[in-house]
Write a structure and sequence with these properties.
mainly alpha, two-stranded antiparallel sheet
Length: 237
């Protein structure tokens, strides 16, 4: 279209100006996209790097991020990172810290992408186990601290471990899946084996009190504290 050709000419010409702001590049890319020009064609016809075009499109897709870019003086790269993770409050906080400290957001963005990919893989494993009929918790629903709810760390009021028969009817019985890494043995001395991700399964009780269970260390402490009283009672008798 004629309008697209005019914008391309203007954008290409303005790119040679040292004073051109990134917000102007963003707005020019947006106008071309609205006229139906693809990201690949925008990059080709304007000589704007494809990653810059992608960043501009990401920012223009988020009204709140676009406003932050204009009011807070963010770079296109910083604003694009915030737009990518705007639905993840924790990720946004990490990015804001990096920006506030004057650091490049590249490293933080890669960390966040890796974490997002691992979480997606974890959810796939959770759904797979659920399909087998196991009571798997969502990662966000895992009880904290986990070690206080591990079934292998809980005992009955009498100090007995939970039997298999008791587990079947135990209130709050659930399975927590967490990622871990293992380094397999390698026969090659000069070759370092690559770590392999595995999924750790931990049986827990989400409400030990309702199930009549206590942590074994708590019971041990209680027993030790009551020992002197028992000795005094025996002496009195």
């Amino acid at each position: 279209p004629v309008a697209a050709d005019w914008i391309v000419d203007q954008l290409s010409e303005n790119l040679h100006r040292a004073q051109m702001r990134e917000s102007e590049v963003r707005d020019g890319v947006e106008q071309l996209a609205l006229l139906g020009v693809s990201a690949a064609q925008i990059a080709k016809r304007t000589a704007v790097k494809r990653e810059t075009v992608n960043a501009a499109l990401a920012v223009t897709s988020s009204a709140s991020t676009r406003e932050r870019m204009d009011t807070q003086g963010l770079t296109l790269q910083q604003a694009a990172a915030l737009a990518e993770f705007e639905d993840d409050e924790r990720a946004v906080e990490q990015l804001e810290r990096a920006i506030g400290w004057g650091r490049s957001v590249d490293h933080t963005v890669q960390q966040l992408r890796d974490r997002r990919a691992e979480r997606a893989a974890l959810q796939v494993e959770v759904e797979r186990l659920r399909a087998e009929g196991l009571p798997v918790l969502d990662p966000d629903d895992a009880p904290e601290p986990l070690h206080r709810h591990r079934l292998d760390a809980l005992v009955t009021a009498e100090g007995d471990e939970v039997s298999q028969e008791q587990r079947d009817d135990l209130p709050g019985l659930a399975l927590v899946v967490t990622p871990d890494w293992q380094w397999p043995d390698s026969d090659e001395e000069d070759e370092e084996p690559e770590a392999v991700r595995v999924w750790e399964q931990t049986w827990v009780c989400t409400d030990p009190e309702a199930a009549g269970l206590v942590h074994r260390h708590d019971r041990a402490s209680t027993s030790s504290a009551s020992a002197p009283d028992d000795e005094q009672a025996e002496a009195a008798r």
